[in-house]
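quick one if you have a minute, typing this from the bus. below you get a single protein, a line of residues and a line of whole numbers that encode the local backbone shape. could you go over both lines and see whether the tokens make sense for that sequence. anything you notice is useful, everything is just below.
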Amino acid sequence: MPPPRKFDDINKWTIGTPDLIVQMPKDVPVPAKAPDQWRDVLADPGLTEDRYIKSVELKPIKGYKAIHHGVLRAIASDGLLEVVHDVTVTV
């Protein structure tokens, strides 16, 4: 039998220490047995000046710490939408 799989430490940042951490404004419960849900959740980073985005990481911080799929988008002050990061993870 093969050795058990070793998973990465989910408490570590894979992109290095971030300059800014933006959290969702409220928890989003996900039922154990339900179809996929695609929700739009707006999380304001509170920036007051333009910033360049070098990298992003989508990271669960509560509950069951796994992400099945997610898309991160940046909305500019003029309302234009840009996909920053599209991630699909199967756990």
